[in-house]
Amino acid sequence: MAKVGIRDVARAAQVSVTTVSHALSDTQGSRVNALTREHVRAVAEDLGYAPNRLASGLRNQRSYLLGLVSDEIATTPFAGEMILGAQDAAYERGWLLMMLDTASDRELEKRQISTLLQHQVDGIVYAKMYHQRVGLPAELAGVPTVLLDAVSEDGIVSSVVPDEVEAARAAVRALIGAGHRSIGFITNIDDIPATHGRFRGYREALREGGIEFDPALVVEAVSEAHGGRTAAYQLLSRPERPTALFCFNDRMAMGAYQAAGSLGLKIPHDVSVVGIDNLELIAGSLWPGLTTVALPHYGMGRWAVTRLLDEIEGTEEAEPVHIMFDCPLIERGSVAPPLQI
Amino acid sequence: MAKVGIRDVARAAQVSVTTVSHALSDTQGSRVNALTREHVRAVAEDLGYAPNRLASGLRNQRSYLLGLVSDEIATTPFAGEMILGAQDAAYERGWLLMMLDTASDRELEKRQISTLLQHQVDGIVYAKMYHQRVGLPAELAGVPTVLLDAVSEDGIVSSVVPDEVEAARAAVRALIGAGHRSIGFITNIDDIPATHGRFRGYREALREGGIEFDPALVVEAVSEAHGGRTAAYQLLSRPERPTALFCFNDRMAMGAYQAAGSLGLKIPHDVSVVGIDNLELIAGSLWPGLTTVALPHYGMGRWAVTRLLDEIEGTEEAEPVHIMFDCPLIERGSVAPPLQI
DNA sequence: CACGACATACAAAACGTTTTGCAAAGGGGC
DNA sequence: GCCCCTTTGCAAAACGTTTTGTATGTCGTG
Q1: Which residues in chain B have their CB less than 8 angstroms from residue A83's CB?
Q2: What is the CA A265 to C1' D15 distance in angstroms?
Q3: Helix axes A17-24, A34-47, angle to 10 degrees
Q4: Mean pLDDT of chain B
Q5: Which residues on A lie below 8 Å from B286 (Cβ)?
Q6: If you average pLDDT over residues B317-324, what whole number do you get?
Q7: Rounded to whole angstroms, how far apart are CA atoms B235 and A251?
Q8: Which residues, in sequence order, are CB contacts of B59 under 8 Å at separation 6+?
Q9: Which residue, A80, A326, B293, B319, shows the most beta carbons closer than 10 Å to its own?
Q10: Interchain CB distance below 8 Å, A57 and B52
């Protein structure tokens, strides 16, 4: 069963290839009779004809291919949602996405981008697996590009990142709303936007709640379960222990659960905990379920591709847009009113 | 900066496009002088020329594109490794991979496959996110295809799956090796190959160790943390409780940790636990770290693409191959000798 | 010295589309 | 009834490669 091409359709429909082409793409001013069009369409359908995108891409200088280059796709659990969002948005508009993992290797990244360009991708989503500032690779100059979960130093291309400050505020507000006044903050040690943004959100939420900031309630650690565990242990074993903990992420919150358990404290009865990330695997598996703030990976992925396609298809040169996505609170069972109230 | 094409190189090098083409692809019998070749190459390099894959694909009837269709990429944590393996293998051989998520929707799957085919992909990896038997979509007939983490009912295309029996045996052997004789099995309730394979592996390992199978030590539950928790609670609260638990997966093992904790039992001192999956996020975050068996997702992804490319590039029709991948034991800290020995 | 064989380079066709320019036919206004 | 305009269809060129067939010279051999 050889591939059926446009000439096969033309032959079967007793018209020229030109007419077939016109009949199948409605865009042109009616250069074909409605009846002929119907007839051609029926024949094409019948033969199972689908245009060869390689050929039409060559002719139109448009491949309907998008590249997505990102660091460490595999090692992080966020990737899935982000990519799915991007994929969905692309597919809905008739485009396909090609992902490449740079493994954070600048040299590899360079080669991958040029491979993508060789395949004539019409644009590139440059993604990072956690919110960061980046310098745009030189190879991307002149190529429509959108940043996903990253902002560029020169602000020259559109970008989307989560609103870290708001995320932290939402988390802490949930605790304050439950009546807590002594809220520990288990933060991480990396110098990344999330660290600073969430710290600011923590302080802003406290201020809003009329609670004085107490530096003694902030503990830094590596952003893993064990870091969260030691930090929480430290905070919870004090005589004047906080009644709630706001953790930098869900993994650290998991560590907090472990520390609470080893100190004989029950969550949420003795201590409330909130995280950030909404990693289903962790937040949903903990017991009780972890109340946390979701990072809108799916939505950001969608937005990035949608924006990229708008820029590609748009006629006029559009100004780059930089947006921050809201992060919704996901309530499970780790927040309750404080004990002594 | 307009794209530089082969004719630009020809002009700059003062030769014909034919010569440029020949000079750049060494495959042909030397139809070009070594000196000319060097010269052309230098000029091409200089101009930053890279052939347009769309055009060469059209001419060669080979797109150097592969499709990867899979169910639920986003919702499962395995996806990353599997896709990364596939991606790496493809990239190393000069191919690109286009992923599509069918969301387990048969209708969507159909459309996605035909989209891929329109883009002239040279082959398709049909992947599932957990080991299962599948019927191959009719659209794939005649298209080079390899199954990833799935086997087809008719065995007509090559496939790769994990060796479930061996995985379970490795896990249980680790417990027996530590001295355990009373080993509970927390299994799941779904009728999938993993359930049956791991049960068989459990029994085989017991037999090898000269331990009699005791149906009372097997408890079924949903394969989530809460399922593991209730099952483990049930097993561990018996007067004659098992000294070790083999859990269907890491999430259920996490539930076992919770049950042990609520019963005041320490892992691994009072009870040993092993899982299957090696989900870094869970196995590495638990305290103590979970000893578990890794499912070789990265390797399977690599194998699938490598095999697919061999079949595509191979001259003769190759017989389909069905292989099972070994699953290595990953030791962390959840296994110790039993208490009373 | 002449002829053939070989090395080297080029022109042209092909891959499967889309689109532009052109021609034929049909219809309406005068 | 003639002319012009509109509608409808077709032929051909173009997109950027690769490859086949052919032409030109050069060298070696008889």
Answers
A1: 73-74, 99
A2: 71
A3: 90
A4: 93
A5: 225
A6: 90
A7: 28
A8: none
A9: B293
A10: no
